[in-house]
């Protein structure tokens, strides 16, 4: 692989308790290459989101990073001070959360929400921000008329695409998506992931995609890491994860998925 965009090295994260600490992430290492679509799979509670939050430096107590490094283009994210962090977020790493479509401010128009990011980080005035926002909405296939709308006037899928457009505003190197489409129906979910995939090719960013839905993951990812109880137990190409899983737990994950879904996946993996 060429020089990775992201290198997670021997990362261990505890949640500090009154009596004992709980190890949520245990000595995890993986790389994501330039333009790569990398997935982290595993059942609920295995530590996926804890890793995502740590990469964005959004983790808060009781989460405590015990050891390891998170290198973004060679720079350790864990060493950044407040000012460096402000610049790092959005411009280097942007994160779409599980409930992202509800993260838009309900009392502000879509235009103002773009303006807030573009003005704060790039010093754009209203007119410049409007122009850039229109370009960004186009990327996610939303009409520029929507700039005047409030979030409640947009559908869930549309709101999710707007959040993604805002995330792309500063051309991040890495887009982290933590269950970004879970609340949406499968057709909209697929459309959004296809759109992200296209943008990734056009704009060149890398993606860390987190979901417990291994079936969905093999359809869109280049490589997949499978987590079990805080440990990364297997990392492999998406096709291999489906056709030749190496770890017992990966095989169990497949066995637990409905057969119909499996057939759809087979088609997706062969496309
Ligand atoms: N604030 C917290 N305090 C204590 N323990 C926590 C906290 N947040 C998460 N955990 C625990 O850390 C473990 C990892 O959680 P995490 O949210 O990273 O898992 P996940 O794989 O992303 O799960 P999900 O798919 O349900 O989001 C879980 O056992 C969870 O209960």
TrEMBL record:
Q: What are the ABC transporter domain coordinates in residue numbering?
A: 8-254
The UniProt keyword set, sorted, is: ATP-binding, Cell inner membrane, Cell membrane, Membrane, Nucleotide-binding, Translocase, Transport
Recorded GO MF terms: ATP binding
Location of this chain's protein in the cell: Cell inner membrane
PANTHER family reported in the protein's UniProt record: ATPASE AAA-TYPE CORE DOMAIN-CONTAINING PROTEIN (PTHR43297:SF14), OLIGOPEPTIDE TRANSPORT ATP-BINDING PROTEIN APPD (PTHR43297)
Question: Has UniProt tagged this entry with the keyword Calcium?
Answer: no
Taxonomic placement? Bacteria, Pseudomonadati, Pseudomonadota, Alphaproteobacteria, Hyphomicrobiales
Q: Which Gene3D superfamilies match?
A: P-loop containing nucleotide triphosphate hydrolases
Instruction: State the organism of origin.
Output: Devosia neptuniae
Q: Which InterPro entries match?
A: AAA+_ATPase, ABC_Ni/Peptide_Import, ABC_transporter-like_ATP-bd, ABC_transporter-like_CS, P-loop_NTPase
User: Which family is it part of?
Assistant: Belongs to the ABC transporter superfamily.
Put simply, this protein is called ABC transporter ATP-binding protein
Give the way it sits in the membrane. Peripheral membrane protein
The superkingdom listed in its UniProt entry is Bacteria
């Amino acid at each position: 692989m060429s020089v990775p965009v992201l290198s997670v090295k021997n990362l261990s994260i505890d949640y500090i308790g009154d009596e004992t600490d709980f190890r949520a992430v245990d000595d995890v290492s993986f790389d994501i290459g330039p333009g790569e679509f990398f997935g982290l799979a595993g059942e609920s509670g295995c530590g996926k989101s804890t890793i995502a939050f740590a990469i964005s430096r959004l983790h808060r107590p009781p989460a405590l990073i015990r050891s390891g490094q998170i290198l973004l283009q060679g720079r350790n994210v864990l060493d950044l001070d407040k000012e460096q962090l402000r610049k790092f977020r959005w411009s280097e790493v942007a994160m779409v959360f599980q409930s992202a479509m509800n993260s838009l401010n309900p009392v502000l128009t879509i235009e103002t929400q773009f303006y807030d990011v573009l003005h704060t980080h790039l010093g754009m005035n209203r007119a410049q921000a409007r122009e850039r926002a229109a370009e960004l909405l186009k990327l996610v296939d939303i009409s520029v008329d929507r700039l005047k709308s409030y979030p409640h006037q947009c559908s869930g899928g549309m709101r999710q695409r707007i959040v993604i457009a805002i995330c792309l505003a500063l051309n991040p190197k890495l887009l982290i998506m933590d269950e970004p489409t879970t609340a949406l129906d499968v057709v909209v979910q697929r459309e959004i992931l296809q759109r992200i995939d296209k943008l990734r090719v056009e704009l060149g960013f890398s993606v860390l995609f987190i979901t417990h839905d291994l079936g969905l993951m093999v359809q869109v990812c280049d490589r997949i890491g499978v987590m079990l109880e805080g440990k990364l137990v297997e990392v492999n190409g998406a096709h291999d994860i489906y056709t030749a899983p190496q770890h017992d737990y990966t095989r169990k994950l497949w066995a637990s998925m409905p057969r119909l879904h499996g057939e759809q996946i087979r088609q997706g993996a062969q496309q």
